Amino acid sequence: MNDLNPTSTPAADAPVLLRVTDLKVHFARPGGGLLRKPEVVKAVDGMSFDVKKGSTLAIVGESGSGKTTSALAVMRLAPITEGTVRLGDTDLAKLSESQMRDERRRLQIIFQDPYSSLNPRQRIGDAVRAPLDLMKIGTPAERDARVDELFRQVGLRPEQKHLFPHQFSGGQRQRINIARALATNPELVVCDEPVSALDIAIRAQILNLLVELQKKLGLTYLFISHDMAVVEHICDEIAVMYLGQIVERAPRKAFFGQPLHPYSVALMSAVPDLRGGRARAAARIKLSGDPPSPIAPPPGCRFAGRCPVAEPECAQALPPLVEVQKDHWVRCRRVEVVNGLAVAPLALPEIPAAALAA
Amino acid sequence: MTTPLLHVDNLQVEFKTRKGKALVLNGVDFELNAGETLCIVGESGCGKSMTALALLGLIPSPPGRVRDGRIVFNGENLLQATPARLREVRGNRISMIFQEPMTSLNPVFSVGDQIGESLRLHRGLDKAAARAQAIEMLRQVGIPAPERRVDEYPHQLSGGMRQRVMIAIALACQPDILIADEPTTALDVTVQAQIFDLLRELQREKGTAIILITHDMGAVSEMADRVIVMYAGRVIEQGSTAQVVNQPRHPYTQGLIECLPELGSSQHGARADLPEIAGVVPSIWELGTGCAFRERCPHAHARCASEVPPLIADGSGHTAACWLLEEAAHAAPALAA
After folding, report:
1. Quick check: A201 and B197 CB within 8 A?
2. Nearest to B190 among A1, A232, A267 (CB)
3. In-domain check, residue B208
4. By CA distance, what is A278's nearest residue in B?
5. What are phi and psi of A28, to 5 degrees?
6. Which CATH fold would you assign to the domain A16-27+38-242?
7. What is the value of ipTM here, to two decimals?
8. Range of the domain at B162
9. What angle do CA A47, A333, B191 make, to 5 degrees?
10. At a CB cut-off of 8 Å and minimum separation 6, what does A126 contact?
């Protein structure tokens, strides 16, 4: 249980499974009466990323940053306003509803809340079997065998098939959700905050299960979370979103070794950690205010209004997402490259060694 | 030793259910000193929120009932107080912030009315004075343009602002004790950081004692002076933050701390599996005799199944309810010190 199984990091030359290009999801809000004009909520506003086969891309950001909407758009569960979503060779954005139905078996989702995402009146075996029935995969006997196999894979017993969701704890329900998501042998699994509703002791069990299944089945994860420690544990690459756009994208080690965007740095510094305690809290970078509205985002850098190192120029034009080091992309005009090394305009605060050593 | 501000002694709360009586708090003891922050941690269902409700006399009754124990606040046993006396204490001397700032504010009253309510009730202020004081409270919790915000309704505020309003309501009468039940669970981390800063700052200024209920060990480490760990309705470990976080003694606390993904894990070597605590919290009907953690405990032995371990002290104020500690003390008294 505690042994150090190094996870095989997917080879750098693994093929790209999911390529999202310039994705936009805009929601129209109709006007009301004479005074309120129709408005457009730009939930996701030009987002591009690749996910390599067998790897995990984590999308992090605060509520309202568009991380869940972008994942739902990849699943075609939110309307795509513009852009392409390529899964292998197929552009999901262009498919008709019925074509999409056939592709659904290739991508599945695990939802955040294990309580509301299972039908309380459906036996859990039927819930896991439902995707197989709906997509007409295999014969009925094969489907039964598949459900048993899935139950074992996620650490449940096949004889529990006949029970109802209320007879299970949150962690077990999340195992049922995982089994259901894996039923059709998907290539891509979207995990939308899969552990944030669970108790800490159960979180570790589910995270370990997800890692184990990825290794065994070669799954590709799009992992949505706001918990930086969980993300650091599970991801191979990370994308940080702010107000509908990616502000930084990098491989795991590079990002957590040196986050470059001031927002990423502030986000990292806001996480309360076991080590550091009050010294850490005292050294924290303080962000004031709330993010601006996605209806009328400011013209320049969207973070400029809250950024501790913003300059007047930052508010004038939206900076592009630039590759400042190999595979490390950042959307900030204040990040400089000196002798081939990127320099962050805002450094993570130093925490006194004494506080960490304790 | 000074008398603590609050002393909870052998608190037992039971609920009547169809299956019989469920003892959800089984002899909870702790003390809270003036001006300190005490964190109560544990998994859902361990009794942490129930403890908070009991302190305020808010156990839903029936079906709930305090079966035994004492809650002594400033020398007065609140369990024997009349409902009228409890109303004087609640929201005035002891107040509470709830987890969900959306559902715990009333959507049809302005925030000014809601902050002013306790001032009018407890302090006898008139409407104008209460409004003025409400504006002052909004300013203190860091809400910009309080003169305008005071007349706004909860739906006009963001989640972080609503939680600030909750804090303003709770602190309006300058209580001695503020109970915060997972006050930041519904908020983003950057907003959580703001709320924690605010709580620390207000505590420094006003000397309010805080009971923070949380399951986030990171939050414990940056907020708490002392920590109580609860499991299945009992306190299983308590001590200073440094003691509990750095040298946890109960196997459950040890597991709880080990199983956390750590910031910085990407920088040292390959990814390892997280240590797990096997199994789940037993249901209240499965407790039986002995230590409630024994089924999940890597060190459980015969005695754990037959006798409930008491809190065993080490002389430095750090106690844990585990038989291993007693055996360690017998085997090598020097080690226990």
Report:
1. no
2. A267
3. no
4. B222
5. -85, 135
6. Rossmann fold (3.40.50)
7. 0.83
8. 101-172
9. 65
10. none
